[in-house]
Amino acid sequence: MKLVIVGYGRVGSRTARVLREEGHDVTVVDNDEKKVDRARDEGFEAVLGDGGTESVLTEAGVEGADAVGGLTGDPNVNFAACMLGKEYDCRTVMRISEDYRQEIYERYADDVDEIIYPERLGAAGAKTALLGGDFNAIGDLTDQLRLTTVSVPDGAPVVGEHVANIDLGADGRVYAHGREREPMTIPLPGTVVEPGDQLALLTERTALERVRSKLLG
Fold first, then answer.
1. Per-residue pLDDT tens for 28-46?
2. Contact between 174 and 152 (Cβ < 8 Å)
3. Domain residue ranges of the chain, discontinuous segments joined by +
4. pTM of the model
């Protein structure tokens, strides 16, 4: 897929790297020259400018893109980028802050395909949403769903496995990973589980113990 990511901060840069590792064509847009230089140094096509401006998105290749992600810290830029993406029949994914009032959230949600909310799992949500997945359950857990974390001990069955290859079947899914005392984020395809790692899981409440057993023994 061809993807345009507006914003190369913490969420945008991690999302871009993961998508590229999975074989997708990613172009980055940012209005910060240092971030654009960093993106180019890391091998990305990158455009300097306001991602909420049509001429900038056109330069980034929005006309042939499958999806546009507005992942900056400015919701106005993100929304403008998404609305322009809509004009080019792109899937649109918008990041907002988790402290937005419900009515603001709903207004944005009516106009874009996916909202990345809450932002603490922004990279994981952005990657899933840009590829067409449904990440809403992370922000709107129901009576049947639980978001939980587990610490991987020595000798657990998943030690030595690639995070991307962990298969929990219909019981759940691993959404984020973190080393000991490091923040959790979406893992790169080559990330291997080590003792002491943390895994974030989305599971059905009734399946939680089965999932723990599969992961930890």
1. 999 999 999 999 999 999 9
2. no
3. 2-117, 129-216
4. 0.61
Those residues whose C-beta lies under 8 Å from the C-beta of residue 36, and which sit 6 or more positions away, are 8, 28, 30, 46, 47, 48
In degrees and rounded to multiples of 5, residue 182 shows phi and psi of -115, 155
Which CATH superfamily, name and number, covers 2-117? NAD(P)-binding Rossmann-like Domain (3.40.50.720)
Q: CATH number of 129-216: 3.30.70.1450, 3.40.50.1980, 2.40.50.140, 2.30.38.10?
A: 3.30.70.1450
Any idea what the Cα angle at residue 207 is, between residues 198 and 175, rounded to 5°? 35
Question: Rounded to the nearest 5°, which phi and psi values hold at 71?
Answer: -120, 20
The alpha carbon of residue 131 and the mean position of all alpha carbons in its chain are separated, in whole angstroms, by 10
